[in-house]
Structure formats: structure tokens, C-alpha cells
Amino acid sequence: MSVTAPSMSFDGLHSFLQKIDAAVRDLRTALEANDMDRLPNALELTNSALESINGYPGGVEKLRADINEFPEGQKERLLSLLNETSTNHQINGDLIRLAMQRSAAMQSFIAQQAPGATYGSDGGVPGSVGGVLSRKV
Predict the structure, then answer these.
(1) Tell me, what's the pLDDT at 109?
(2) What SS3 state is found at 124?
(3) What is the 3-state secondary structure (H, E, C) of 18-68?
(4) Which residue of 16, 50, 54, 123 shows the fewest CB atoms closer than 10 Å?
(5) Residue 120 scores a pLDDT above 70
(6) What's the predicted TM-score (pTM) here?
(7) pLDDT value for 106
(8) What single DSSP character describes residue 132?
(9) Residue 115 DSSP class
(10) What is the mean predicted confidence (pLDDT) over 39-59?
(11) β-sheet bridge partners, residue 132
């Protein structure tokens, strides 16, 4: 088994992972606060940060290998930061799905409140020109 040197120093790798974590946490904060003004920028920063992992010299596999090359204490710090970032990223996905469901529910509610969402007393759709959806109902 040959031991290779990591692509970055501990401080460099820690800083690299902290920037990714900060972007992911900022997106989570914006999503939890339902802050629509911050959301586009936070999404863009998070996407850039996550793409930088793919741009790591040697890719994701080399990143994992580099983390494992550090002494136990440093390795634990890096893995802890990476796990926290991963957890926040998963939570962001859940928060985005919930926001989409909430949006769909609000659109449905608003559509049901519209005058055209009900049938008239003659079976027609209000606002349509002589349209009757069904006389069999």
C-alpha cells in the first residue's frame, strides 16, 4: 500500500469544505425563513459550491482519499464538517420539496376561490360562452 500526499494541506482542505458548508447553510437559512429575496443568490452560491467538489483535483474519490490521509484528529474534523454539510444539503432538498408542495396547494386553493371554478345553476361554467360540461351529472 503506497501513501500519497493529499492534494491540499489540512488548512486548505478545511477552508475548501467550510466554504461549501457556508453556502449550503445559507441556503438552508433562506429556505427556513421563506426569504424569497435571498433565495436566488443562495441557490446560485450553493450550486457553485457543490460543483467545486467535482472540480477538486482528482475528483470526489481523491477528496475522500485525501481526507483519509490526515491524522485521526484532523480527519475527524474534516469528516464531521463534510457530514454536517451533507445533512444540511439533504434538509435543503426536503425544504425545497415542501415549498413546492405549499406552492401547489396555494395555487389550487386560489383556483378554487375563483368565480370560474364552480358550475352555474344551469350546469354551465360561469364566464364561458354557452358551455355545459355535462348534463349527465
Answers:
(1) 79
(2) strand
(3) HHHHHHHHHHHHHHHCCCCCCHHHHHHHHHHHHHHHHCCCCHHHHHHHHHH
(4) 54
(5) no
(6) 0.71
(7) 84
(8) B
(9) G
(10) 91
(11) 124
